[in-house]
Fold this sequence. Notes:
By secondary structure, this protein is α+β, with helices and mostly antiparallel strands. Helix content is 27%, strand content 33%. It is built from nine helices and 18 strands. It has helices spanning 45-53, 95-105, 110-123, 139-151, 169-186, 197-203, 221-226, 231-237, 305-310; strands at residues 7-16, 19-29, 34-38, 60-65, 68-69, 80-83, 157-161, 190-194, 206-211, 214-219, 240-245, 248-253, 258-261, 273-282, 286-293, 296-304, 318-322, 328-330. A six-stranded mixed beta sheet has the order 6-7-8-3-9-10, with helices on both faces. Strands 13-17-14-15-16 form a five-stranded antiparallel beta sheet. The protein starts with 6 loop residues before the first strand and ends in a 5-residue tail after the last strand. 37% of the residues are buried.
Amino acid sequence: MLEPADLELIHLTKRYGAATAVESIDLKVAAGAYCCLLGPSGCGKTSTLRMIAGHESATEGDILIGATNVTELPPAKRGTAMMFQSYALFPHLSCVDNVAFSLKMKGVDKATRRKKAMEFLELVAMTQYAQRVPAQLSGGQQQRIALARALVTNPQILLLDEPLSALDPFLRVRMRAELRRFQKQLNIPFIHVTHGQDEALALADQVVVMNKGRIEQIATPRDLFEKPATEFIARFLGGHNVIETPLGPVAVRADRITLRRSMNGAGANDARLVAAVRAIEYQGAHYQVALEHPGYSELTALVSDENFAGEPLSVGDNVNVLWADKDVHSLAPAP
Length: 335
């Protein structure tokens, strides 16, 4: 089995004619790390993944896997495997034959490839479905087969293109835990493309936020959420309010904002501002309270269910909005 390898991208660029999809990005992913490329549609994350896989050629820059420059190598020579969003299973083949297919193409004899395919079906807890065809499986089961098929080649790096997007929310959460477990067990880098903030924060050791073909921030999930670098990241992650000050924009987490009912629309001495309640959404452990103020296009507070029960609010109420200086985080302005 190949040893896990570091991945390094050096000034990697992808252009489609006059349009630049990825612009001179630099990134290092350590062997054994789970890395999520996060960003909105069109930010360049999938183009980056496809360049690593060799399914797209790089316009400029280099891709290193371990000590090997693989920029010009075909996909089969890179030591990577890719799990596609659609899973791309062969509908007429059984699960075991789907998993063994790449070994068959390499000329591995039938007994050996089926034995190895069964080992990886066992890894993903799918041995009892070995003889079924994909149409007889649920979405989550199909994903497991696609994962086993990608891993059977013993890649140094696994590339995942939005692998959870086709699943329902409950199964998506369950499969996040499974992917994380597989990655830790195999101890190879997973490079996972997603536009889901919750998914990236839950899965990754390293989150790479992309915007307009560039990397805006590389951080651990906790550091990313606690200290978003830019106004774009704070807004994209959600859970933050962007506040304009004379010194520039700052972020204040929605769960760090306190609301107190305003008497006759008057502001308390410690209030930052007085706003009107525009909407209230019950979300189980907390209420999401959207506020209206002439100086802000969006302002949101998260109020625990216990605090809301003690001082319930209604749409149209005026509230004092408070936050502590320690909860204010400076941001780089949007370009």
